[in-house]
Amino acid sequence: MSFPWAKHYKPSHPLMVWLDEKLPLPRFVHGAIGGGYPVPRNLNYFWNFGVLAGFCLVLQIATGVILAMHYAANSGVAFDSVEHIMRDVNWGWMLRYGHANGASAFFVVVYIHIFRGFFYSSYKAPREMIWLLGVTIFLLMMATAFMGYVLPWGQMSFWGAKVITGLFSAIPIVGEPLQQWLLGGFAPDNAALNRFFSLHFLLPFVIAGVIILHIWALHIPGSSNPTGIDVKQESDTVPFHPYYTAKDGFGLGVFLLIYAAFVFFMPNALGHPDNYIAANPMSTPAHIVPEWYFWPFYAILRAFTADFLFIPAKLMGVLAMFSAILCWFFLPWLDTSPVRSGHYRPLFRKFFYILVLDVLVLGFCGGSPAETKYVLISQIASAYYFLHFLVILPVVSSIEKPEPLPFSITESVLGTDAAATA
Amino acid sequence: MVRIFGPLVGLFFAAALLWSFGVGAVQLIREPEPSTAVKDFHLPPKEVKFTFDGPFGTFDKPQLQRGFQVYKEVCSNCHSLKQIAFRNLADLGYNDAEVKAIAKQWGTKAKTFDPKTGDAGERDNTPADHIPAVYYAGTGNPPDLSLITKARHEGPAYVYSLLTGYTTQPAALLKKYPDSATPDGLYYNPYFANLNIAMPAPLTTDGQVTYTDGTKSTVGQMAKDVAAFLTWTAEPKMEKRKQTGWAVLGFLLAATALAYLAKRNIWSDMH
Q1: Taking chain A, what is the end-to-end CA distance rounded to the nearest angstrom?
Q2: What is the pTM assigned to this prediction?
Q3: How far apart are CA A294 and CA A297, in angstroms?
Q4: Which residues pair with B111 in a beta bridge?
Q5: Taking the domains of chain B in order of start, what are their residue ranges?
Q6: Which of the residues A16, A60, B109, B270 has the least number of beta carbons within 10 Å of its own beta carbon?
Q7: In A284-345, which residue ranges form alpha helices assigned H by DSSP?
Q8: Which long-range contacts link B179-183 to residues 24+ away (Cβ below 8 Å)?
Q9: Record: contact A327-B88, CB cut-off 8 A
């Protein structure tokens, strides 16, 4: 899609004219991320994170494909093959640390991208489909990251796989056969490791496909913006290139600086030491914890400690953990306020900041040992989490009186807009 | 529909959580979580400085050689080091002839098997061989040490603390937790996760290893040297990693500065 003032692609070189007739790929790029895509002129740095997320996927695929050339997906040698990469493969240590920290970087970027969406209600009409595809991408990322963490076949790999696949056994009647079918055995073993490797290689390309749909859906209404009001006129927008290519270039530089600091100077800071111990089915680690990016959801899973209305606690935990993400799918219809941006929603804004704090507390509890005090905190925090999305948002959007909106994006940037007084 | 079922689902989960919270809180008040000997007496690793600390840190090769000597003469009796090949020891500053000699003179020999006769045999190790596995028949299960400093929180300090941390069980512990007396065949060490370790103190007396470089081999010195050596075995590419990191950060800093100037230039007519 495009606004009427979007610049059309005009090839000048004869070769480009020829190419445009045979396969208009340059025309497509021009319209997607070039001068032919008008974007609101007031995007702040939170709008850099979509491009950064795309960059992370490319980074993970590039490092991952090379790692797969040296890794052996066999439970007998997987752990040693990772050490072979670290020691004997040229630059193998950099590829592996880059890939492991790349996963963390991908989640940091995507969490900021998602919370940007929460604050500016990026999920609201006409952008519901972009949001639904985005939540789908997040679910696929979680599956991919989980299976990737199993591949080094260390202690946390093995026991993490056992705990997470064990969740399926909470489902009544079909649970246990389902778990055995997923694992290809009674416990994680060679069959499970092989299929996890296969799926870990496949899913990133599925993610890439859904990202194409995500961006396609974005180009129909165009990007939202910090004021949340619609684009009215040409002065509200700038062409994506060179304005946002330049801004994204700077953002990418800052991102890479932080990423490189982790890869080269604290590559194991975000990992768990137990994963440098080879998997041992006979020895359970003292605390089984997933990677940091799963901690908030792990805290919700563990918060259900008592049976409720004849539903076993374990099943409640599993249902709640999945619902914690699935409820995002319904946000466009739960939040009915006509105003998009949190800047003009005083009550919503307060609850948004409580939610950020709440998720940080959940993350802290999820990474802590399962001691009573942390469980009690996570129970209150989990309750707030569900109340926020499913009760507070609908109520706030119906009782809140939003602040006045600017006339146009141009006015919000320049202070005045000739069209407003005309 | 969403606006009817959404809040109901939300209230359902919140009610279940508050129920769990109530049950847990009542239980905590009735029977507070008992304190344990581990909670009261386990210690975090000691503060200890190494040359490889920090973003500019490098290995001290003479120290790694001393640490290797401690491993060879003490640890290797029970612990394997399977990720390390003799050829890797060149990193510690040994020349080719020295590496060959170390491999040849290594006590545990490489295993051979003759498929024609079916005979199993032994031969001297070569630089291409990995340090051979050790067969240990005693109690406990000595872990492979190749990655030990990355497999424990604050690994190098942990190894140092464990090796220098053996002590008799405090009277206060026995008084408060009479059931937690160290069982026969185990040894009390407050730096070990459950306080009682199957490994007897390996470094007991000063001068246990005679260093060839003249360094005085106190127990603390030997423990520190072997901790440094095991940091190298876990992360042999550490120096290259940090050097590369500085080059990468330098390049990125320059590139980001240019990107910032380009962005300012392009946006200059837009504010």
Answers
A1: 28
A2: 0.95
A3: 6
A4: B122
A5: 55-242
A6: B270
A7: 295-303, 313-326, 331-334
A8: B180/B36, B180/B37
A9: no
CA distance B39 to chain A (A): 12
Amino acid at A28: F
A36-421, superfamily in CATH? Cytochrome Bc1 Complex; Chain C (1.20.810.10)
Within 8 A of B29 by CB-CB distance, chain A residues are none
Give yes or no: A80 in active site: no
pLDDT, mean of each 10-residue run, chain B (271 residues): 88 93 91 88 96 96 97 94 96 96 94 92 95 84 95 96 95 90 92 93 94 93 97 97 98 98 93 65
Where do we find the tokens 């080879």? A278
Q: Are B88 and B236 in contact (CB under 8 A)?
A: yes
Tokens of B248: 């990468």
pLDDT for the residue B136: 84
The Cα–Cα gap between A405 and A344 comes to 7
Cβ-based burial of B177 (10 A; exposed 0-12, middle 13-18, buried ≥19) = middle
Radius of gyration from C-alpha coordinates of chain A? 24
Q: Model ipTM?
A: 0.93
DSSP state of B47: P
Question: In the annotation, is A223 catalytic?
Answer: yes
Q: Does B237 touch chain A (CB under 8 A)?
A: yes
Contact predicate B139/B149, CB 8 Å: no
CA A13 to chain centre: 41
Q: Which two tokens stand for residue A328?
A: 């995002």
Is A273's CB within 8 Å of B150's CB?
Answer: yes
Let me know if A403 is a catalytic residue: no
Q: What is the reported pLDDT for B51?
A: 97
Contacts A–B by Cβ distance under 8 A: 168
Tokens of B161: 């603390």
Chain A CB within 8 Å of residue B42 CB: no
Q: What is the DSSP letter of B251?
A: H
Dihedral sign for Cα A35, A38, A42, A48, please: negative
Task: Please state the CATH superfamily assignment of the domain spanning residues B55-242 in this structure.
Answer: Cytochrome c-like domain (1.10.760.10)
Measured CA to CA, the distance from residue A270 to residue A283 in angstroms comes to: 23
Smallest Cβ–Cβ distance between A250 and the set B17, B152, B260 belongs to B260
pLDDT at res. B4: 86
Binary contact (B193, A286; C-beta < 8 A) = yes
Closest by CA to B6, choosing from A119, A336, A103, is: A336
Q: Which residue in B270, B266, B251, B263 sits closest to A250, CA to CA? A: B263
| Helix or strand holding residue B120 (H, E) | strand B120-123
Asked if residue B84 lies in contact with residue B146, where contact means CB atoms within 8 angstroms, the answer is yes
User: Could you tell me which residues are beta bridge partners of residue A237?
Assistant: A40
Mean pLDDT of A13-39: 93
**How do residues B60-77 score in pLDDT, each as one tens digit?**
999 999 999 999 999 999
What is the amino acid identity at position B236? P
Report yes or no: A111 at the B interface, CB cutoff 8 Å: no
Q: Is A247 a catalytic residue?
A: yes
Q: Does B61 touch chain A (CB under 8 A)?
A: no
Provide CB contacts within 8 A for B233, sequence distance 6+.
Answer: B81, B83, B84, B145, B146, B147, B149
Residue A177 contacts by C-beta under 8 Å, 6 or more apart in sequence? none
Determine the average pLDDT of the residues in A12-24.
94
Interface residue B128 vs chain A (CB under 8 A): no
Tell me the CB-side half-sphere exposure of residue B178, using CA atoms within 13 A: 1
φ/ψ bin of A415: left (φ > 0), alpha (ψ from -120 to 50), beta (otherwise): left
- Residue among A273, A418, A229 nearest B193 (CA): A273
Q: Which residues of B touch A371 (CB under 8 A)?
A: 33
Question: What residues of chain A lie within 8 A of the CB of B11, using their CB?
Answer: 387, 390-391
Contact with chain A for residue B200, Cβ under 8 A: no
Determine whether the interchain pair A383/B266 forms a contact, defined as Cβ–Cβ distance below 8 Å.
no
